[in-house]
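Researcher: Good morning. I'm working through a list of sequences from a screen, and I'd like to move beyond sequence-only analysis. For each chain I'm collecting a predicted structure so we can compare shapes side by side. This is the next one on the list. No need for commentary yet; just the structure.
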Amino acid sequence: MTAPSLILASASPRRRELLARLGIEPSAIAAADIDESEALGELPRAYAARVAREKALAVEGGDAFVLSGDTVVALGRRILPKAEDADTARRCLSLISGRRHRVLSAVALKYPDGTLRERLSETVVRVRRLTPDEIEAYLASGEWHGKAGGYAIQGSFEGLIAAIAGSHSGVMGLPLYETRALLKSAGFPIG
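Model: Good morning. Structure tokens for this chain:
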């Protein structure tokens, strides 16, 4: 029996790398072009799930499954932005310094018949109190660019994390436990 085809609805090299850890190579990459703006009063959990869902629905899969994900860094009810500039990253890092925050990583799998299955991972991350020099050194690394909350856990920032409770891969951008469960239930050959 032939394994089903999978389209990854993300241009993120990190998501593709994480998917490979499950032994899955997508047959195609098709970044979903959707409006990722927050709805007024939208909470972080609902936002992550909605964006992952909309990404999956936005990609035409034909006879293939479509997998998408979204990762949100939340401080209380506040969604921290993806840092596209150093000032935004600096603000995010200052906000999470010495505090706990949540990383919500949603994954959605659209079946060829249009059925949608979803899962969500919630991870609590505690960052040590950062000195201004540590923040500036991290900004100089450039690892923060385009990352939710202004950091990448898979880089040097991991040395500034005091504790993590939940999914490390979810913080990276694709929760592997939840993704594996979705793909396995859809008939993908995963050991």
